[in-house]
């Protein structure tokens, strides 16, 4: 057999393989890309909602007009299980649904309240091979289709909202940290830990397009879980102290003093903390240490650097204690104090847990020590340095 015939046969074999692969392949314009999933539960049935985008509409290319109104398609399904409800969307989807670009999962508060074990939800979703683990996850009290249909400012795509991309807003103002599926599952499975799930809501017209009011997403609080079960929710204005005990916190704003007549506004950056458990007489109490740096954002009254540092430390201490007390009334360990005991002294945690001595008390926090160092006063110098 000549070398030319061998080459021809090789080419024909490659063409046949390529043709076989092409039978099951789909071009991107023939796929329905699911970018977010909403899950609800009512009367013993699961309701699912899928946010579907046309990626041609959201692509940022020279041919596409950035800032145009991007349409959002929402599919609805119902079933006795999560997967059955999602699969019930297929018959009317017209196109093959692709799940590899899911960036957000939204759980209704009704779902959280009625399920005995939240791990069942994520077991159903994560078993599907196309779905990834680094997906943002939230709770909400709002109707799921309303959340899923919200747009970003300037009519950017829904991929630029808090639902799919919360990190940019959090870097600028660290109030409630984003939560990811993989980390939430880890928190569910760690003994002694209170798992946290940020809650999304819709603003009441704080933004306008010209003179027309527009609604946008914002985080209105956090839902809490212990032993895989929902134990309650706190609104965002009762959680000021939590950010000082989160290593993810990048930047937050405070007034000094924290009352109706502030003397200055400070920006606190990258706080660091340590929690030391002290076990005595079958009781555990905690000493909290916080160190942070900051700078002056606005000066209303004439204060020295030392005085502003002192007042800032006092504000952080008050906020931490106030947040703890908000959870204390409902036995929600918002600050995850008992989890610190579990990680540092697991034998003591197991012993005290067995005899029921891990209940939060008014004096469970023994002391809070805060030190704030102001690094500069912005473009202006301080009025005086006393």
Describe the protein in words:
This protein is of the alpha/beta class and 386 residues long. The chain folds into two domains: 1-239, no CATH class; 240-386, GMP Synthetase, Chain A, domain 3 (2-Layer Sandwich). It is built from eleven helices and 15 strands. It has helices at 3-22, 55-58, 82-87, 109-114, 119-126, 144-148, 167-172, 181-189, 305-328, 337-344, 346-354, and strands at 31-42, 45-53, 73-79, 96-98, 104-108, 136-140, 195-202, 207-209, 212-214, 217-226, 229-235, 251-256, 264-280, 283-299, 365-376. Strands 1, 2, 3, 4, 5, 6, 7, 10 and 11 form a nine-stranded mixed sheet that branches. Strands 12-13-14-15 form a four-stranded mixed sheet. Strands 8-9 form a two-stranded antiparallel ribbon. The model is unreliable at 19-23 (pLDDT under 50).
Number of domains: 2
- Termini distance? 98 Å
Radius of gyration: 26 Å
Q: Profile the largest sheet.
A: 9 strands, mixed
Judging from the principal axes of the Cα atoms, what is the shape?
Answer: globular
How many DSSP helices?
Answer: 11
Helical proportion, percent range: 25-40%
What is the residue-averaged pLDDT?
A: 86
What amount of the residues lies in strands? 25-35%
User: How many strand units?
Assistant: 15
Structural class: alpha/beta
N-to-C SSE string, H for helix and E for strand: HEEHEHEEHHEHHHEEEEEEEEHHHE
Uncertain residue segments: 19-23
């Amino acid at each position: 057999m000549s070398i030319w015939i061998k080459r021809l046969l090789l080419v024909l074999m490659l063409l046949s393989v390529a043709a076989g692969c092409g039978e099951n392949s789909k071009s991107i314009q023939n796929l329905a890309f699911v970018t977010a999933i909403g899950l609800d539960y009512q009367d013993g049935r699961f309701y699912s909602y899928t946010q579907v985008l046309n990626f041609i509409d959201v692509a940022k290319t020279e041919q596409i007009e950035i800032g145009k109104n991007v349409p959002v398609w929402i599919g609805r399904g119902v079933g006795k299980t999560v997967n059955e409800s999602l699969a019930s969307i297929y018959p009317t989807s017209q196109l093959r649904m692709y799940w590899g670009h899911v960036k957000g999962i939204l759980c209704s508060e009704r779902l959280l309240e009625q399920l005995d074990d939240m791990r069942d939800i994520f077991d159903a979703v994560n078993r599907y091979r196309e779905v990834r683990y680094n997906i943002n996850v939230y709770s909400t009290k709002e109707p799921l289709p309303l959340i899923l249909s919200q747009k970003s400012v300037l009519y950017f795509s829904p991929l630029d909202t808090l639902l799919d991309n919360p990190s940019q807003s959090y870097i600028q103002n660290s109030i409630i940290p984003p939560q990811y599926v993989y980390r939430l599952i880890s928190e569910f499975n760690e003994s002694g830990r209170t798992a946290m799930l940020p809650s999304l809501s819709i603003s009441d017209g704080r933004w306008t397009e010209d003179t027309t009011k527009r609604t946008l997403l914002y985080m209105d609080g956090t839902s809490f879980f212990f032993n895989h079960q929902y134990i309650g929710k706190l609104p965002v204005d009762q959680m000021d102290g939590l950010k000082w005990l989160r290593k993810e916190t990048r930047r937050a704003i405070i007034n000094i003093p924290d009352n109706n007549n502030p003397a200055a506004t400070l920006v606190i950056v990258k706080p660091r903390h340590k929690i030391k458990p002290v076990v005595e007489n079958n009781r555990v109490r905690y000493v909290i240490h916080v160190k942070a740096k900051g700078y002056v954002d606005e000066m209303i009254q004439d204060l020295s650097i030392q005085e502003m540092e002192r007042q800032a430390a006092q504000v952080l201490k008050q906020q931490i204690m106030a947040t703890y007390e908000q959870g204390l009334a409902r036995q929600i360990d918002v600050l995850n104090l008992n989890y610190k005991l579990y990680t540092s002294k697991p034998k003591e945690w197991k012993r005290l847990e067995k005899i029921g001595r891990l209940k939060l008390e008014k004096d469970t926090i023994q002391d809070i020590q805060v030190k704030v160092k102001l690094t500069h006063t912005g473009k202006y110098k301080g009025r005086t340095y006393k």
